[in-house]
């Protein structure tokens, strides 16, 4: 079947050639095949969607082909062929550059869905540009980490028109377990940035708590076993300690530099809302220092190494 031979009906995309095949079909252009994007795009492939993957470093596109996806070769192919364009890129500038390039080319599809964590203001700008092209725009940041992306159990918080959200829902169902329409464009990102603010605070709490334990003669594993059944339990403690700190694993996961990016975005959001986030300001300064000291490329749980190293 040619990629263009798909129609949207009754909340799903189907082959347009009258085939009896029950599986929903849509052509997806997935841009950003990184720690999150690769397993998300693979899950879409495994659910029967035709997915063109595009990534800055071409090795990732080859790896995606091995998982059953197709190499996009160029952004123009995605502009031309994709019914739905998805982005999962590191920084606001990456999203702005890629989408601006696509808008210049002209987009033939119906939806743009951005899974990256960027700013509500950027989404507002992109949604306005999309509307001028007659394209629906959804900001749909995700939480649940690479494990959630692999398992298709992400929490997806989606801002945008409700009708556009409902049309995209079959795609979200492949990727996530908790899928919420949060309100207008940008609201998904506001929820995500509040989440990231708390992730930063919890990461700092775990790092300092373990460092305090080390210096007080308390065994880390015993501490974790007790606290994971106590009020100090958190998803972040459950993630950082067994899978990274105890396992001496440093590669991301979720890079510390990306968490710093999110704390900066949450700070901007708080500034706009005139909320001081006093405790968060100190934690953000510590993340800036950790980044400058070379921890940015490591998993965010390496904040424990930074905290311990600083005082040893
Ligand atoms: P990543 O750095 O692992 O992946 C990003 C990918 O995008 C890389 O493969 C990179 O080569 C590619 N890329 C960058 N700029 C590009 C461009 N201009 N054109 C094409 N490809 C480009 O990042 P990630 O961890 O997958 O995170 C992506 C987004 O998802 C970020 O905004 C992050 O904050 C968010 N996020 C990450 C996690 C996580 O646990 N890693 C969880 C939730 C949300």
Automatic annotation (TrEMBL):
E.C. code: 1.1.-.-
InterPro entries given in the database record: 3-OH-isobutyrate_DH-rel_CS (IPR002204), 6-PGluconate_DH-like_C_sf (IPR008927), 6PGD_dom2 (IPR013328), 6PGDH_NADP-bd (IPR006115), HIBADH-like_NADP-bd (IPR029154), HIBADH-related (IPR015815), NAD(P)-bd_dom_sf (IPR036291)
Keywords: NAD, Oxidoreductase
Domain of life the protein comes from: Bacteria
GO molecular function, one term: oxidoreductase activity
Family: Belongs to the HIBADH-related family.
PANTHER family linked to this entry: 3-HYDROXYISOBUTYRATE DEHYDROGENASE-LIKE 1, MITOCHONDRIAL-RELATED
Protein name: NAD(P)-dependent oxidoreductase
């Amino acid at each position: 079947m040619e990629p263009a031979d798909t129609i949207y009906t009754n909340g799903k995309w189907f082959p347009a050639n009258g085939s009896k095949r029950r599986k929903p079909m849509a052509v997806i252009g997935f841009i950003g095949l990184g720690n999150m994007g690769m397993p998300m795009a693979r899950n879409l492939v495994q659910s029967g969607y035709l997915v063109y993957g595009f990534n800055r470093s071409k090795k990732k596109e080859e790896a995606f082909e091995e998982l059953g996806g197709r190499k996009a070769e160029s952004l123009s192919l995605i502009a031309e062929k994709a019914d739905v364009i998805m982005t999962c890129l590191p920084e606001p500038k990456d999203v702005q550059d890629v989408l601006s390039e696509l808008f210049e080319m002209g987009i033939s599809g119906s939806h743009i869905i951005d899974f990256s964590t960027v700013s509500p203001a950027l989404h507002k700008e992109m949604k306005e540009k999309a509307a001028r092209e007659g394209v629906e725009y959804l900001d749909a940041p995700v939480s649940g980490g690479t494990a959630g992306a692999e398992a298709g159990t992400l929490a997806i918080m989606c801002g945008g028109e409700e009708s556009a959200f409902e049309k995209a829902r079959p795609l979200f169902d492949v990727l996530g377990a908790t899928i919420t329409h949060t309100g207008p464009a940008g609201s998904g990102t506001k929820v995500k940035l509040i989440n990231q603010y708390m992730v930063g605070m919890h990461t700092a709490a775990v790092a300092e708590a373990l460092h305090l334990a080390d210096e007080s003669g308390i065994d880390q594993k015993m501490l974790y076993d007790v606290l994971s059944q106590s009020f100090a339990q958190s998803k972040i403690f459950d993630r950082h300690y067994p899978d990274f700190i105890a396992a001496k694993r440093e590669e991301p996961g979720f890079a510390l530099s990306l968490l710093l990016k999110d704390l900066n975005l949450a700070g901007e959001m708080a500034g706009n809302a005139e909320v001081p986030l006093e405790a968060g300001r100190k934690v953000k300064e510590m993340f800036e220092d950790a980044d400058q000291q070379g921890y940015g490329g490591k998993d965010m749980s390496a904040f424990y190494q930074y905290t311990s190293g600083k005082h040893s």
